[in-house]
Structures are given as C-alpha cells and as structure tokens.
Design a protein that fits this description.
The chain is of the alpha/beta class. It has one domain (about 5-55, about 70-195, about 215-300): Alpha-Beta Barrel (TIM Barrel), CATH 3.20.20. The protein has ten helices and 16 strands. A hairpin with a 2-residue loop joins β5 and β6 (about 65-70). The longest helix is centred in the C-terminal third of the chain and has 15 residues, at about 275-285. The protein starts with a strand and ends in a 5-residue tail after the last helix. Keywords: Cytoplasm, Flavoprotein, FMN, NAD, Oxidoreductase, Pyrimidine biosynthesis.
Length: about 300
C-alpha cells in the first residue's frame, strides 16, 4: 500500500515522524532501529547558542500523559549543523529542523544558519514552547507577533517553514490564519498544554519550573478538535501531533484535517512505536476502506 505523502519540501515515504523534543537527534533510537524507516525526523529545538534548560526535576508523569519543562536544552545551532545533521543525513529520511529563540533576531539567525546545509529539508518554527521565560510562547499567543516572526524567518531561509502552534490560546484559527498570511508553508499542531502537578506530602510542584507542558493521550481530543477547526479555514498542510500511540490515532488525525503526523510522548513508553505504527497502518487503512494516505486525505471529513 502506498503510504507516501508530498508536502512542501518533504517527500515523505510515510506520514510518520517523531515529534521534536521527544526524539533528541535520533542517536539513541538509531540503536533500536533503522531511522530510514521513518517518514522524517523532527530534530530537537535549536537556538543561536547552547542552552542548558530549566532546573531539575523537569519531567513528571500524569495519569494520561507527561508534564515536562525541559526549557529548550540544546547545544546551539552550529553544533547541530556540524555534528547532528551529518549523522542524520546518512539515513534515507527527511530532516526537519525545529528553530527557537528569545527574540526575532535570534529566530532569524537560526533560520539563516540552516541555509548552510542542504541536508535539512524544512524548518519547524517553534513559537509555542510554554517552558521558557523569553521567546517561544510570547510569539505564539499573539497573532501580530506570530505573523511578524514568520515573515522574518521566511525571508531569512530558503527552506519551507512549518509553524508550530500553541493550544494555549483563545482562538487557534486566528493564529493559523495569521501565519498563513505571513507565508508559512505549513502548520505543526499542537504543542503542549500548560499544566501542573503537586506533590501532596510537601505541597510543592513536582517539577522545578512549577508549570510544564502536558503531552500524551490526555491532549489528543484537544488536538483533533483544533486541527478540525483550522482545516476549515486554512489551505496549507498540517502536521498533526498530540497523544498519538496507534495507527488508528493516525487515521483519526488525517480525517480531522492533518496531512502527516508526529509521534511524541509515546516514544518514551515504547521506543519502537513509530515503526509499529508504520507497520500497522496499511491494515488499518484497508479496514476502514482506504487504499493509500492520499486516498484518506482526498476523502477526509467527518460525517454528521
């Protein structure tokens, strides 16, 4: 069965990618399976200079997901270009670089830096991280700022730009339309929902940042609803994410309006989850009457 999907800058052999922030740069997972099996790899966020991230503890389990406040820890864009991209480029898969910053100028610098390499196929513009004090969410909750940083990154880069949207907004359709008007080639949605968990004996938050981003199965219904709403109002492709653990979840995302998906938290529970989903997808598509991913996309839409 044909699982391929064509998106701006990305010829995916299948629609399955590990989500940025949940897969590092793929080094540990490459010890489990051949990364060439993946439709693509969304690398961990890159900033201009090295970031050490937030104080520990930075991760806490919840009943239906995970809270994290990593804080965009990364070695800096030049280290990523010099060491991580060449290693990933040995695999037959698409590479998407997630870019972040504390200012518009930093976003511009990081986006322009990735022009150094032809091995990066597209950029994912991270304006939705809830766990940093500067940058990130301040751009992702204001349509004017989201549009402005998208325009700057588009001018700085010769690669397609997918803007990662935050669910922590009043109107996500307004955000999606703003970045589409700014020239975004696609959307990634959704990032994590802001949450908190308290240790009862001490009455202290379980993570040092007090609040963190909630991911995992708990947020899937929110993501499906937001993708469905955005799909009715914008025409650019959507890479859907949030609580995907199975091939059935992937089909649900595609029907709601996504064109490809990214798998995040489930990688921590089962390092083979992406490969498992790729293997199970043909049977699930056939079960529900589809003969390819493009067939789902052409026929998608919910019945009422």
């Amino acid at each position: 069965m044909n699982l391929s999907v064509k998106l701006p800058g990305l010829n995916l052999k299948n629609p399955i990618m590990p989500a940025s922030g949940c897969f590092g740069f793929g080094k540990e997972y490459s010890e489990y399976y051949d990364l060439s099996l993946l439709g693509g790899v969304m690398m961990k966020a890159a900033t201009q200079f090295e970031r050490l991230g937030n104080p520990t503890p930075r991760v806490a389990e919840t009943s239906a997901g995970m809270l994290n406040a990593i804080g965009l820890q990364n070695p800096g864009v030049q280290q990523i270009i010099d060491h991580e991209v060449p290693r990933l480029a040995k695999y037959d898969t698409s590479i998407i670089a997630n870019i972040a910053g504390s200012s518009i100028e930093e976003y511009e610098f990081v986006a322009a830096s990735f022009n150094q390499t032809t091995d990066v196929d597209a950029l994912e513009l991270n304006i939705s991280c809830p766990n940093v004090k500067e940058g990130g969410i301040q751009f992702g909750t204001d349509p004017f700022m989201a549009k402005k940083v998208t325009e700057v990154v588009k001018k700085a880069s010769n690669k397609p730009v997918y803007v990662k949207l935050s669910p922590n907004v009043h109107n996500i359709v307004e955000m999606a339309k703003a970045v589409e008007e700014a020239g975004a080639d696609g959307l990634s949605m959704i990032n994590t929902l802001t949450g908190m968990k308290i240790h009862l004996p001490s009455r202290k938050p379980l993570i040092a940042n007090k609040t963190g981003g909630l991911s995992g199965p708990a947020i899937k219904p929110v993501a499906i609803r937001m993708i469905y709403e955005v799909r009715q109002q914008v025409s650019i492709p959507i890479i859907g994410m949030g609580g995907i653990t199975s091939a059935e979840d992937v089909l649900e995302y595609l029907i709601a309006g996504a064109d490809a998906v990214a798998v995040g938290t489930a990688n921590f529970q089962n390092p083979f989850v992406c490969v498992d989903i790729i293997n199970e997808l043909p049977e699930v598509l056939e079960q529900y009457g589809f003969n390819s991913i493009e067939d789902v996309i052409e026929k998608r839409g919910i019945t009422v």
